[in-house]
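User: Can you help me understand a structure? I only have the sequence.
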Amino acid sequence: MSLTHVDVKTAHDLQSDDDHTYVDVRSIPEFERGHPAGAHNVPLLHLDSQTGQMQPNPEFLTVMQANYSLESKLLIGCQTGGRSAQAGQILVAAGYQHVANVLGSFGGSQDRATGQIIEGWADAGLPVEHETPPENGYESLRRKASGTP
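Assistant: Let's start by predicting it. Here is the structure, written out as tokens:
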């Protein structure tokens, strides 16, 4: 199986059908500043408070595997689409069958080849949350992976 790509409006429609889960792979602070309504947060990278640099989340795949089966229908988004494409490739390589990278993700982007603006979730006027239901936050998802209640 290979990574597919969908625009934000298609992602919203798929998510609304209740059979796709939007997984936002931005850092926890980015996610908390606003995210697609109903999104789950599993950061691909964490902000290192000492260096101010983003560092890989060594638990990314473990947390994904503990919370989502290989048959789960996943929509992977980030801020502009780079991290989500990377995360999507990791998931496909791990055997996930239905993984879609959300083009434009939350904040939108620009196609490097054509210069075309790719609309993001927020710019499209799609529902945004600033509060996270506890079960959708990274700490809750991580606890499930570690077997801690």
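Now, to help you interpret it: Residues 82-93 form the longest helix (12 residues). The chain is about 30% helix and 20% strand. Let me know which part you'd like to focus on.
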